[in-house]
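ESCALATION

Customer reports they have been waiting on this structure for their group meeting. Please prioritize. Original submission:
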Amino acid sequence: MSSWQRVITKSRQTLLKITSRVRVNSIKGFLSLALVGVSLSVAIASCSGGNGNGTADDPTANPVAAGNNKQDVEITLVSFAVTRAAYDTILPKFVEKWKQEHNQNVSFNRSYGGSGSQTRAVIDGLEADIVHLALALDTQKIEKAGLIEPGWEKELPNNAVVSRSVAALITRPGNPKNIKTWADLEKGDIKVITADPKTSGIARWNFLALWNSVIKTGGGEDKALDYVTKVYSNVPILTKDAREATDAFAKQGQGDVLINYENEAILAQQKGEKVDYVVPDVNISIDNPIAVVDKNVDKHGTREVAEAFVQYLFTPEAQQEFAKLGFRPLDEAVAQNKELKALADKYTKVNNLGNVQDYGGWAEVQKKFFEDGAVFDQIQAKIKR
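Update from on-call: job pushed to the front of the queue and completed.
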């Protein structure tokens, strides 16, 4: 529902409430109804430009909008940790663009962290205007809490997926254990580092990538269960989140291989770190959605700017910034950009790419694999962790 439709709906609701309380044949009642009618007319006129041709971008067509454009706007963006570097570049570009086009200053409050933790924070009261999370399951939890209206995926391009990566196997320098494929992870002498999929968003993607590697190569569910059980038998410790998993591998020296996002490995290399990694040919598309938090933007009066920013993130200009930092481009036009040609060579071609929809979507995946007593718990019981 658009901003002007919400205003009209709320005004009509107010009118109905008053009519239920006021006697129209009294002078006071008549005046109350008249004032509400005027308010409704003003709301319609200010939101539609009066004659249907004005827009918020045209101050001469809408004096109310012109006044609002001069007020500073503050947006709260809540995102999962690995997007920080991209937003460091993207946000200033949008702020400058909005200032030029609307003569309005926009500032961003930002919060980064594990996707699951960010989700809980928003549900518990962190008043995000926009959420960019690691998986749609987390966004759906915020929707179920009544903060995001149903159908948010259909309001944006690409089903609201604004950044994308694949799974990578980070090895020790020189890859001494010669780890090249998913199948290598079930060998008895390989120690695998990953987070706990019960608490970590990326760990759910890791689990799905492992399962997908068997299904996409012709194996059935029994074979997939046996393979994934062997891999988790090789996991010495399940960390709470992806950051702890990375620390266990890189700082504490645990394990022979770390399952992580490809973009994290590329970003580390760009920072001058020595990172050896393999992107298996059979892989999973790690899709990260974005959404406007309806209840909060309406409360803050920030819907117009929040929606414009989210739309901006799908433009080639913004997508190029995601791509520069290792996220896979969403469309071929961005992938062919001259500035990104050198980076494109870093993307290992994936010939067999699955996605969460192949397994029924996140609601079904969560129920089948990660709910209490589901497949992952059954695996843990088998290996007696």
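Sent to customer with the following note: The domain at 167-284+355-383 is CATH 3.40.190.10 (D-Maltodextrin-Binding Protein; domain 2).
Escalation resolved.
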